[in-house]
Amino acid sequence: MIALPKGHPELGEDPPTAALREILEETGVTARVRERLGEVVYWYQRDGKRIRKTVRMYLCSHESGEPTPDGDEVSDARWVPLRQAIKELSFPGDRKMVTEALARTSGGR
């Protein structure tokens, strides 16, 4: 499975701060939020219950560090050009957000 970094906010943490923390924890990269890209909403089943999940996505800039998998949740972390990422990402919502990021940028990292 190939996916963008994501996770849940910790107590008292706003969504942009949570996004930056998840990027750092999962990839070892320090980033800066440039702007909000949008939301991905999907449904899944857990313990026989249907659950609605909303993921807020942000366009970020690289500040420092090189991608290194965390060894726990992530087995591979690497830079991928946006156009290539659209082809490789496993989830439609991730592909949609990368397509939006590409539309807002020159296609760099």
What does this protein structure show overall?
With 109 residues, the protein is of the alpha+beta class. It has one domain (15-104): Nucleoside Triphosphate Pyrophosphohydrolase. 30% of the residues lie in helices and 30% in strands. The protein contains 3 helices and 2 strands; from the N terminus they run H-E-E-H-H. It has helices at residues 15-27, 82-88, 92-104, and strands at 30-46, 49-64. The chain has a two-stranded antiparallel ribbon with strand order 1-2. The mean pLDDT is 93. One of its GO terms (biological process) is AMP biosynthetic process. Pfam families: NUDIX. One of its GO terms (molecular function) is bis(5'-nucleosyl)-tetraphosphatase (asymmetrical) activity.
Give the SSE map:
Blueprint: H1 15-27, E1 30-46, E2 49-64, H2 82-88, H3 92-104
Antiparallel strand pairs: 1-2
Helix pairs in contact: 2-3
Which short descriptors sum up this protein?
109 residues; alpha+beta; two-stranded antiparallel ribbon; Nucleoside Triphosphate Pyrophosphohydrolase; single chain
- What fraction of residues sit in β-strands? 25-35%
Instruction: Please identify the oligomeric state.
Output: single chain
Could you describe the largest sheet, including whether it forms a barrel? 2 strands, antiparallel
Q: How are the strands of the biggest sheet laid out side by side?
A: 1-2
CATH architecture, please?
Answer: Alpha-Beta Complex
Query: Can you give the helix content as a percent range?
Result: 25-40%
Rg over C-alpha atoms, rounded to the nearest angstrom: 14 Å
Q: How confident is the prediction overall: mean pLDDT?
A: 93
Rounded to the nearest angstrom, the distance between the terminal CA atoms is 21 Å
State the fourth-level CATH superfamily. Answer: Nucleoside Triphosphate Pyrophosphohydrolase
Report the structural category. Answer: alpha+beta
Uncertain regions spanning at least 5 consecutive residues: none
Shape: globular
Q: Determine the CATH topology.
A: Nucleoside Triphosphate Pyrophosphohydrolase
Helix tally equals 3
How many discrete domains?
1
Order of helices and strands: HEEHH
